[in-house]
Specification:
Elements lengths: L8 H30 L6 E5 L12 E5 L4 E7 L7 E2 L2 E2 L7 E4 L2 E2 L6 E4 L4 E4 L8 E7 L6 E2 L5 E10 L4 E9 L15 E13 L2 E10 L5 H4 L1 E10 L2 E10 L15 E13 L2 E14 L9 E17 L3 E14 L2 E17 L2 E14 L7 E15 L2 E12 L2 E15 L5 E13 L2 E14 L4 E12 L2 E12 L5 E13 L12 E11 L2 E9 L2 E2 L2 E2 L2 E12 L2 E12 L4 E13 L4 E10 L6 E13 L4 E14 L7 E10 L2
Antiparallel strand pairs: 1-12, 2-3, 3-10, 4-9, 5-11, 6-7, 6-10, 8-9, 12-13, 13-14, 14-15, 15-16, 16-17, 17-18, 18-19, 19-20, 20-21, 21-22, 22-23, 23-24, 24-25, 25-26, 26-27, 27-28, 28-29, 29-30, 30-31, 31-32, 32-33, 33-36, 34-35, 36-37, 37-38, 38-39, 39-40, 40-41, 41-42
């Protein structure tokens, strides 16, 4: 705790009780007036159910992953809101998505936006309840991460709701992803009375208040939250005052501005003395709350973060821009803390109609609050010139100098992207990179040349190029080749080559510098028959290199009322003499246009091995329509090993599914 005048615990408790009583009384008085005024004009909203994760994003109703092509398909069920709706992956391939709603292809930026770093999609207009959006995208990137999150089922009853606020009872039940059942002891579940409203105190002043009471009892203060925001606008200036507090066990979803275990007091101001000049001032204190022990029902301050900042932005003649800011942040805790000063300046100005230059300087210094040792300083300065020579040629050249406690680094980089038209509908695209990084720790060179060209007459697309990296002790050249083709109707072919053993240094190559070869084939000689096959040698998936040889084969056919699917995969480890295989077989019978019966076999090491597994499946499915179905299924599994007798394991389930 920080030094402060001594206040009796009794006085502290009395003061806290009086403050809470005043807040609750004021809110309940406002609630009563609101509810009485709207009793005759607004009916209560019906019970609403949404499947969300812990961040409040609505989870997809179904998902499907194509591991051969690294393609993910998420099916999103509309909830009459723009979002956010959760995708199954973060950091997927930007721009690779295809979003279809009711058979209509949506356009990025106009109809929806995707935050790839967090893996959420938002629509420009609310997606109506019950309407489906199909989102397909590629995850073939080293930074792609599957979002594994427990599912949450909120239940909400609105007494009244309008554009300014709401009064409702809200409960959150956590789906059972572990043997333990959700209970009041789980901080991620709650049952709460929530109130929020906005009032116009003056024509230019607004007040927003909210009270969110968790009704689990006992440690309700640690589970509840309160917010107060006031804004005032006048000519040439605007000001804001805010107070937000949420206990360490606060779990209520969708409440903007409340974070568990934080108490925030803030003051903001914006001055615009001229049309081309804006000044922003901020003062904020954020206290991190923590409980002294499990038996304490209130939270105490563990860390205090104080921020004072000022920023100025100005428009210069001929479309120039000037921006400068200075921020002092002090983080104090029981161990002492640090004080950080951050200053930055940037100046941008067009050099030509399609070319812009930017100068920037950034300085960051951190000093411990206790003692004088341990202070650090980091500086960065540089220039960046980017633009277009014509609609088909774009360039970016930059130089940056960095000074850090570890030393210095100079980074000079030039990149060029050019499109060369072949005809009215096709063009060859060339991407190049030339970069040198020089510092006290050494030097590194990065070079790349990539060519993307259509192969006329072959209905194919070829991407090829080289990537070079060089240090004083290690130089490597990697060749890249990707081919996709559809030479005839029903036949699709893709190939991948990565030549990693093109090393330029003498001596034996590193053991992980092995080449990657891959080919995928899909052939449909008949409308009811599709054959697939793939062969990989040292495949690279999600940025990880696997030194194995993998072979996949597949068959799917439909004859009358019967449907047959078969998949076989063989895996050979190249580092030691071992092999494993997987097999999946299923045979389906369409009993009626709505009902089907399916039997199947899933096996590992079907052709022998020290450890093996077999699962026999039987399921019955009834299709309500083209989207929803209901199924009953059962299985018998055997897991065996040499010298041990396999014991059967039985399972059965019923589920409501969504059909892709």
């Amino acid at each position: 705790m920080f030094p402060q005048p001594y206040i009796s615990p009794v006085v502290q408790s009395l003061r806290r009780t009086v403050a809470i009583a005043l807040i609750v009384g004021a809110c309940l008085a406002i609630v009563g007036q609101k509810a009485f005024a709207q009793t005759t004009s607004m009916a209560p909203s019906p019970l609403s159910v949404r499947i969300m994760d812990a961040s409040g994003a609505i989870l997809p109703a179904g998902s499907q992953f194509d591991s051969k092509n690294d393609l993910q398909t998420d099916l999103i069920l509309g909830q009459n809101t723009v979002g956010p709706y959760r995708l199954s992956w973060r950091n997927a391939v930007q721009g690779s998505e295809m979003v279809v709603v009711d058979g209509r292809l949506l356009q990025a930026g106009r109809d929806y936006t995707i935050d790839w770093s967090s893996g959420v999609i938002r629509f420009s207009v609310p997606l109506p309840s019950g309407e489906l959006a199909r989102v397909t995208y590629s995850v073939n990137t080293p930074t792609a991460v599957r979002v594994l999150s427990a599912s949450y089922v909120p239940l909400q009853w609105n007494f009244w709701q309008n554009d300014n606020g709401f009064l409702r009872i809200s409960s959150l039940l956590r789906a059972a992803d572990s043997p333990a059942s959700p209970s009041a002891s789980d901080p991620r579940t709650y049952s709460a009375l929530q109130f929020q409203d906005r009032f116009h105190l003056l024509p230019t002043s607004d007040l927003t208040t909210g009270l969110f009471l968790d009704m689990h009892g006992q440690d309700w203060l640690r589970r509840s939250g309160f917010l107060l925001d006031s804004t005032a606008t006048m000519r040439g200036a605007s000001f804001g005052l805010s107070y937000h507090r949420a206990g360490t066990l606060f779990a209520q979803q969708g409440i903007a501005g409340l974070n568990p275990g934080q108490e925030i007091m803030g003051l903001t101001g914006t001055l615009t003395p001229l049309q081309s000049l804006a000044i922003q001032l901020t003062a904020r204190q954020t206290d991190q709350l923590a409980a002294a022990s499990a038996n304490i029902l209130t939270d105490n301050v563990s860390t205090s973060d104080r921020l004072l900042s000022a920023a100025i932005s100005a428009k210069l003649p001929q479309n120039g821009q000037l921006a400068a800011s200075s921020a002092l942040e002090t983080v104090a805790n029981a161990q002492g803390g640090t004080s950080t000063l951050h200053n930055s300046v940037s100046l941008s100005h067009p050099l030509a109609p399609n070319t812009n230059a930017t100068l920037h300087f950034d300085a960051l210094s951190a000093t411990p609050l206790k003692g004088s040792s341990g202070a650090t300083t980091t500086q960065s300065a540089g220039i960046d010139v980017a633009g277009s020579l014509n609609p088909g040629i774009h360039f970016d050249t930059a130089f940056t100098n960095q000074l850090t406690p570890a030393g210095f680094a100079d980074d000079q980089k030039v990149s060029l992207s050019a499109g060369i038209p072949i005809d009215k509908n096709q063009a060859v695209k060339v991407d190049t990179l030339y970069e040198d990084v020089l510092g006290n720790t050494g030097a590194q060179r990065n070079r790349s040349l990539l060519l993307h060209a259509p192969l006329q007459g072959l209905r194919a697309q070829l991407s090829s190029g080289v990537e070079y990296t060089g240090t004083p002790t290690n130089r490597a050249l990697v060749g890249l080749f990707d081919l996709s083709a559809q030479p005839t109707k029903g036949l699709q072919l893709t190939g991948t080559v990565r030549l990693r053993d093109m090393r330029l240094t003498s001596g034996a190559p590193a053991p992980d510098n092995v080449n990657t070869y891959g080919v995928q084939l899909s052939y449909a000689p008949l409308a009811q028959l599709q054959l697939t096959g793939a062969l990989y040698y040292n495949p690279e998936q999600n940025g990880q290199l696997q030194q194995v040889q993998r072979e996949d084969f597949g068959l799917q056919t439909r004859v009358g009322l019967l449907m047959l699917q078969a998949q076989l995969g063989l895996l050979h480890n190249l580092l030691n003499p071992s092999r494993s295989d997987t097999a999946n077989f299923s045979l389906g019978f369409n009993l009626t246009p709505w009902d089907s019966l399916t039997t199947g076999l899933q096996a590992q090491n079907l052709f022998g091995g020290p450890n093996w597994a077999r699962t026999y499946l039987l399921s019955f499915t009834h299709h309500f329509n083209s989207v929803f179905d209901f199924s009953l299924s059962g299985s018998i599994s055997y897991n065996g090993a040499l010298g041990a007798q396999a014991q059967p394991q039985y399972a059965a389930q019923a589920q409501l599914g969504i059909h892709f």
